[in-house]
Amino acid sequence: MTALSLREAIARLIADDGLGPGDRLPTETRLAERFEVARSTVREALKRLEEEGLVDAVQGKGRFVSALAADIVERPITRYEGVAEMLTRLGYRVTTSVFSVAEVAADQQQAQSLAVELGTPLIRLERLRYGDDQPLVFSIDHLLRDALPGPLGHRDWSTSLTGALAAHGREVTTSVARISAVELPAEIADRHRLTGLGPWLLVTETCLTRTGRRVLLAEDYHRGAMLGFNVRRRR
Amino acid sequence: MTALSLREAIARLIADDGLGPGDRLPTETRLAERFEVARSTVREALKRLEEEGLVDAVQGKGRFVSALAADIVERPITRYEGVAEMLTRLGYRVTTSVFSVAEVAADQQQAQSLAVELGTPLIRLERLRYGDDQPLVFSIDHLLRDALPGPLGHRDWSTSLTGALAAHGREVTTSVARISAVELPAEIADRHRLTGLGPWLLVTETCLTRTGRRVLLAEDYHRGAMLGFNVRRRR
């Protein structure tokens, strides 16, 4: 493992262990054991994290998670996760309204994004995710019909789609997403009484399995005033 | 160089060379020469890029940039670049209105974000970036006063701040950013006649030099209807 990938691993560890600003990092020795690398590699990775402002070193006291690091780990945009999963991690009690589920034929744009023939059967799913009873994420999903076999009526569509796909051997491991700021389309806002909630962060995402198969097109409208994303950027 | 970092390097190469969907990638041999790695490492990296849907392999013909890859390289959110630089890369003719430049004292939040004492002298800069004469990005920057020495009046503030910082040995190499969807604050919209332009993508960013020094706090409002960001996400 190189210092570069170790740095990512340590950043991920901060996120996974729920460390907050001011929390002490494990010692060099513990990190070396945990990631099975030399202490010199750990030191190099920690040095880089310091330079990026994610770790504060205090002489004689150890290394601590910085305030900047806490900003990043809250909702990293480079991490793929289902909406319910993400909201749960942020501490919300999640509930779901399923507005519609139907079989449709892939239009030109959907066919192209999913790399399938025009007219390929898809499942179209329209849902609203609430966190602590507040509407937070409005989702329109299109997934390959054969990715979730069986009659549409026999499935509980209020649960995680990512989870259902994984249970059918089609775990989403990567995605390509586009992020923009939009108003909720008036037709959707009126129909579901979601007017006056301000701008939404629209994430349009093509989701791929480990073998590169494109299984899901997700359009998620995240309520702007409530939900942001964090990212580390490099030149 | 590992297959993982090589994959990033190839993705960056696609962006830097301006390759579009359907364009052929350099051969394994050329990539191995360019990055000074073994062909087996190149093959592994290309395989991963295929699995992520960024590269299409066509039997007997070579490897090509996929439509998904083109989506990503257009405006990758994980890449730090100045606003003028980004707009220029997107093909816009960039012009700048400087609304104000002044010396201010760091307030509590600014001091914390920049890791300086309360009251530390900062330069506050308010500007609007136009692309092809359309207002695209409204920016409020706060930077360390001593990062750009000399009288405020003796500098052309319409040019790149990132460039000016680099010229003073304070090149920004990384940042930590938060992205949200907002309305432009009414006070700003009214004062600069930027009303009715729809939602804006707000990027709030702490920018660091190579040595980890925090030199700049940038608040950039990107016009939502015109500018989006792209990102690859991984589980």
Structure notes:
Two copies of one chain form a homodimer. Chain A has 235 residues and is of the alpha+beta class. Chain A folds into two domains: 3-74, Orthogonal Bundle (Arc Repressor Mutant, subunit A), CATH 1.10.10.10; 83-223, Chorismate lyase-like (Chorismate lyase). The first copy, chain A, is built from eight helices and nine strands. The first copy, chain A, has helices at residues 3-16, 28-35, 39-51, 67-74, 83-89, 108-114, 161-167, 186-191, and strands at residues 55-58, 62-65, 94-105, 121-131, 134-144, 172-182, 200-209, 214-223, 229-234. In chain A, the strands form two sheets. The first copy, chain A, has a six-stranded antiparallel β-sheet. In chain A, α1 (3-16) crosses α3, α1 (3-16) crosses α4 and α2 (28-35) packs across α3 (39-51). The longest helix of chain A is centred in the N-terminal third of the chain and has 14 residues, at 3-16. The radius of gyration of chain A is 21 Å and the shape is globular. The model of chain A has no long low-confidence stretch (mean pLDDT 87).
What structural class do the secondary elements of chain A suggest?
alpha+beta
Instruction: Find the count of extended strands of chain A (DSSP E, 2+ residues).
Output: 9
Mean pLDDT of chain A: 87
SS element count, helices of chain A = 8
* Poorly predicted spans of chain A: none
Helix content of chain A: 25-40%
Largest sheet of chain A: 6 strands, antiparallel
CATH homologous group name of the largest domain in chain A:
Chorismate lyase-like
Write down the CATH class of the largest domain in chain A: Alpha Beta
- How many individual domains of chain A? 2
What radius of gyration of chain A results from the CA coordinates? Answer: 21 Å
Write the CATH fold name of the largest domain in chain A: Chorismate lyase
* Annotated CATH architecture of the largest domain in chain A: 3-Layer(aba) Sandwich
Shape of chain A: globular
Distance between the termini of chain A: 23 Å
Give the oligomer, counting copies of the same chain as homo and different chains as hetero.
homodimer
H/E topology pattern of chain A: HHHEEHHEHEEHEHEEE
Q: Which strand order spans the largest sheet of chain A, edge to edge or round the barrel?
A: 3-4-5-8-7-6
Of all chain pairs, the largest interface belongs to: A-B, 57 and 57 residues
Could you tell me the strand content of chain A as a percent range?
25-35%
GO molecular function (chains A, B): DNA binding; DNA-binding transcription factor activity
Keywords (chains A, B): DNA-binding, Transcription, Transcription regulation
Protein name (chains A, B): Putative GntR family transcriptional regulator
GO biological process, one term (chains A, B): negative regulation of DNA-templated transcription
